[in-house]
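Why does this matter for the project? Reviewers at the last site visit asked to see concrete outputs rather than summary tables. In response, this paragraph embeds two records directly. Each consists of the residue sequence and, immediately after it, the corresponding structure tokens. Nothing has been edited or filtered.
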Amino acid sequence: MLTEYYQAARQAAVLAEKDWFGILKLTGSERASWLQGMVTNDVQRLTPGTGCYAAHLTPQGKIVAHMHILADDDTLWISLERATISRLRDAFDKLLIMEDVQITDASGKYDILAVLGPKARPVLESWLGEPLNLNGLYRHQKFEDSRVMESDLGYELWVPREQVDKVLRALAASGATAIDRGAWDVLRTEAGIPVYGIDIDETTTMPEIGERGISYEKGCYIGQEVVAKVKYIGHVNRRFVGLTIEGNELPKLKSPIRKGGKEVGYITTCLLSPGLSRPIALGFVSRTAYVPGTEVEIVSEEKALAATIVDLPFVKRT
């Protein structure tokens, strides 16, 4: 079944219910200026219909939650993993003093659907009955009570919960194949996208997963000093990377990565890539090993599996 799902994702269109994601809604006249001081990216530059990737950090620069922020005329929307919502709400509540900002958990109102593949756009346009006017990452359009956003993997569709069954049937009728989370996880791993609680957590800093989502020109925000220090030094001590693995064996998660007999990191996700026809992994390695092309070993159950550090993504979006 995974092979069927994967072929549909690479050649046609697939549909996944992202029930592990939720939505926060920010309203109030000071929502943008307040959130500007809370996250790593430049929220105040957003215009209605645009969005960005960002994170909220601790004062020590560790990630509390990473997210996508979308701007409307009178609202900011935050899409993020449900596992991080309560921690982010707690952090925001402590930092919200007298500002005119209201934060609402809208996760129970909407379902988020991922529509992916080279034919995802025609499928969505067939369902909508009109062309999509999206031409950039995180740009989004509202259609009645629903919203379509261009995402890292394809498109996201936010649908009122009471309408989701009807929409799922309509998208399937327009040519989308429904897939499960396991198939989605293959696609996101091949794209090199980290998941909070699996690949990254409260020990991770934003620069370790790359500069995407960081603005170095904006004003102060919580954790900025740590991020700026990394920029000044010119490197991070460890980095989120991809690894291709020789043979057919999958190492256990959290297996250590070694180079020259020394432990230099560990893996966070590992699976067989249909696109590369070999095992691949995501993980963290120290700066002694994170140059693409570096040969390392992954040690799992007393076996040393040969692996190579590679650039992400493993497979480019079609």
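We now turn to the second protein, recorded in exactly the same manner.
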Amino acid sequence: MTVVRPSMVVCLGLLAVLSGCEKEVASPQLPRVEVLRVESRDFAAEVTLTGDIQARVQTDLSFRVGGKIISREVDVGDHVKARQVLARLDPKDLQNNVDSAKAAVFAEQARVSQTSAAFVRQQKLLPKGYTSRSEYDSAQAALRGSQSALKAAQAQLASAREQLSYTALVSEADGVITARQAEVGQVVQATMPIFTLARDGERDAVFNVYESLLGAPRSDRQVMVSLLDNPKVQAQGRVREITPTVSAESGTVQVKVALQDVPAAMQLGSPVTATANAEGHPSIELPWSALTKALHEPAVWIVGEGDKVELRKVQVSRYLTGKIVVSEGLQGGEEVVVSGGQLLHPGMHVEKVTGNSGGGAL
């Protein structure tokens, strides 16, 4: 009979334990990742913009001559009529020019009278032979010269009077004064803006928009514009103008929306909002957790054949709250890792778990 000692039993038990450990090391557990099967659909971001109401036509009003402002008849916010006087310059210097031109006209008129009488005498004497042809021609030339000088003096007087009239700055049309650039007592140069006039008539809603939000918008796009402090006050409009250049200061382009049937509450300068959708583009939406990077470029982990992962570079067109919009790099039907991708490396086998992270189809 074979006797089994207790020490042998312990050794056999240890061998069995060690054998089990070797089996566990030989087949390690695969990392589990949450995946999302994505679909590509057109993405059209909804954009809400804030702008203000402006007149279709705005004009800078200025004096056509220089001088010192002695009076200002209107202020910002005043409604003015066409041909209404807005401000005046000191007319002394220009009045002196008018007086001088008048004196020149009187002098030329006297000269014309004198040369005319001399020519009439020559006309009477020439047929009787009491004067020569040369004296007759000289009298005629003197008359014509004095008449031309009179016309020049009269033109100078008319010009001086016109210059004097420019000392009164008048409105070119009915409208509202929206800005004032000069004060009484200030010496101004000709063409220096004094007032800005917003003409009565058509109104625009003007917005400053980042170029990336436009996406080649259609010029006939209809836009609903609402008053910021009272959204119930609305007006329908269409995009009528987009500036072709980007502002160097703000990096935006100016979009003007022509309004139709503008409510009375939408006065000049009133802040307004407009909501519109940009042009749609095929894109894929993913949760933030899916985004990683390949060196310095955005990327995501893709689970391919054999449940192996691949790092794929992507182009992100928009960052939303909790989500990203991928425009290039992915195709519909692919499985993207949305959770558990922190320790992955290319070619690693993973265990997939289908998740519900709120991404996928747009």
